[in-house]
Amino acid sequence: MSVKYSIRRFGFSIMAICLIICAPNVYAQDSPAALTSNNKHCISLDYIAGWMGIKVKTHNAGESVRLSNGKNTLVMDSGSIVATSGSKTILLSTCPILRDGVFYVPTKAVVRAFGGRATDTADGLQLDFAGKSTTVPYPAATQPASPIDKINADISDPRISLSSLAKTPVKSSRLWTYLNDFNAAASRVQPVLKAVSSSSALTFLSRIPVVGTPVSITQYTAHCLNASIQASQFLAKMHSQSDVPVRKAIEAVNLFQKSPSIDNVKSAVPAWKSAATALDKQLAQTDSTIALTQKMINAVTTVEDKVGDRLGRKAASEHVAGLTTFNRAARQYLLRLQGSKWEQSSLKSYFNRLADDGAKL
């Protein structure tokens, strides 16, 4: 081999090494698929998972995802702000979105769940994770060119998955599964409350009045428990009542998408208004159920604390074991209620916006 050839090959090797070292991060250069939902930045799951080096598993035909890097996990469902981070149930700022085969996730929530940082800057959202950094641009806002385009833009609200809603409006199955768990735990805790109030070691509880009411703390807790159960059962009935107008409103949306015309918009406006009205009533009941459930959790927690203070934690365990289990189920149910409220509110504003813009045509 000649010296000249060896020098040339060495030169090419050096150039190749320089290109590899100096090559920009593909994730930093490519413009990732992104959108804005509820004024929050959402990014393609494929992009963010690749950049962060986290594993992704999908379930339920791609509508549920599990992210993991060996230390942390995050489980999210399309269309729901309720997620699981590690062993904790959390509420996201906006919901993940499955659109045109792309799964979008709340950018800040994902980066922060795995120990990274996400910072708003003039150039976009700056992401810092595991010693590397990139900036992803904010999606450009577009203005509809015509009234019909405005209706199309309304319909394209990324928070609303019409295909999912056509099957289970307001993601109800996620809520009622937890409602059943809550009711099952409640049926077991009612005897516990009765035993606590009648226990000779805990008779002091029956003498502790609740501020503003003459009843004892145990009587008040039992009252809150029953009120919360009744409110939840009524909420379930209201859901079935709102199901019909919501489905009709979705049918009107689908009809417009197949044949976008002013006449189809005008005929759809009453259905959209009716759905918004039904959801407004459901929201009021959801708010009431949330308030009662929170009162009940506070009351149960008070009983737990007072029993523990009186008997000592170890001695009190036989009296409060059922309360502790129930409290856990009730708190999970409360988070689901709050998630359901967000979904109902989003859907209500969706139909209100369609109705308002449709009425202007």
Question: How are the SSEs placed, and which strands pair?
Answer:
Layout: H1 3-22, H2 26-29, E1 34-37, E2 40-44, H3 45-52, E3 55-59, E4 64-68, E5 73-77, E6 82-85, E7 88-91, E8 97-99, E9 102-106, H4 107-113, E10 117-121, E11 124-129, E12 132-136, H5 147-155, H6 162-167, H7 172-198, H8 217-258, H9 262-311, H10 313-359
Antiparallel strand pairs: 1-2, 2-9, 3-4, 4-5, 5-6, 6-7, 8-9, 10-11, 11-12
Helix pairs in contact: 5-10, 7-8, 7-10, 8-9, 9-10
Major beta-sheet overview: 5 strands, antiparallel
**Roughly how much helix do the residues carry, as a percent range?**
55-70%
Class based on secondary structure composition and strand pairing: alpha+beta
The helix count comes to: 10
